[in-house]
Each structure stands twice: as C-alpha cells, then as structure tokens.
Design goal:
The protein is mostly beta strands. The chain has 1 helix and 11 strands; from the N terminus they run E-H-E-E-E-E-E-E-E-E-E-E.
C-alpha cells in the first residue's frame, strides 16, 4: 500500500507532544489528590498485578495492569464517567508508553504511536464501526506528519481487533 506525501504540518502535533510531556510529570502508580488506590494480586504470586484508582465518589478513574508479572505496569486505562477514555500501553516492554488509544463512548477514535523519545510518529483514525480510516506518519523524524495512508473500507473481521480492556 503506497501513501501520498505532503509537507503541510498537522495541527495539534505540538499540542499533543506537550500533553504527553505533562502526563509524564505525574508518575504512573502515584495516587493523585483525592484518589484512593486498591492493589490486587490476581494470580497470588506475591506481585501486584493491578492497581485501581478511585475518586472521592468511589468511581474508577484509572486502572494499571502488569500483564507479564514483571512488576512493571504495561497498560494504564483512564476512565471518564463509567467509560474508558484512554488506554496507554508499553507494547515493546521497555518501561515506556509507546501506544495510546483514545476512546469516545465505547468506540476507539484514534491510536497514536510514540518513538523511544516520546515523540508522536504515527496516528491512526477509526470509523464508528471500528475500522481504520487513515494513518499519518512522521517517517522523516522531523516532528511533522509527512505520509498519509487512506484505508479502503474493509470488511475483514481482522480489522476490528482492538486492545483488550481489563476490568478491575
């Protein structure tokens, strides 16, 4: 699949990079003001596999999951109301978040991929039925999307796979 090149910078790339930097200032695993943390050892091996954070109204606001029992949390799910709003994942298990999925209601709207320096290098948008619509990439490493790849309407069920969401 070939994509067309364009040189116009994508709006919001700098803003998103700033938001990522700000979110890194509050460490994962730390309860924020007004939050209560509940830890669980789901497989009874003595290592906490899950941390759930609740607000003052006892509503789940964040869930951290250690899926490979190494003591590091690879998945962080953020909630707004009773719905997931964002899922951050460390897909290459290097201890850094490199994939962020954004949700609206029950639907994933976009997925963002970060490089080793925490810079946005790829963004994929999804349709209301969960299929990828387009992908933008910074293939040059200059901080701008320079490649746009549209996806044709696919009927394959393989496109509908989404990251597993863990329940507390």
């Amino acid at each position: 699949m070939t994509g067309k090149k364009y040189s116009k910078p994508v709006r919001g790339l700098a803003l998103f990079s700033g938001l990522i930097l700000f979110s890194c200032l509050v460490p994962a695993g730390a309860a924020r003001a007004g939050e209560q943390m509940v830890e669980k050892d789901l497989d009874n091996n003595g290592v906490m596999d899950q941390r759930a954070f609740y607000d003052e109204n006892k509503k789940l606001v964040r869930l951290e999951v250690d899926s490979d029992q190494d003591g590091r949390f690879e998945v962080i799910q953020y909630y707004t109301g009773d719905k997931i709003s964002r899922v951050e994942r460390d897909t290459d298990l290097d201890g850094k978040i490199d994939c962020i999925d954004h949700y609206q209601g029950d639907l994933r709207e976009r997925q963002e991929r970060l490089d080793k320096n925490n810079r946005l290098v790829q963004a994929t948008r999804f349709s209301k039925d969960g299929l990828p619509v387009s992908m933008e990439r910074d293939s040059s490493g200059k901080g701008k999307f320079d490649t746009f790849i549209p996806f044709p309407r696919a009927s394959s069920q393989a496109w509908k796979r989404t990251p597993r969401v863990t329940e507390p």
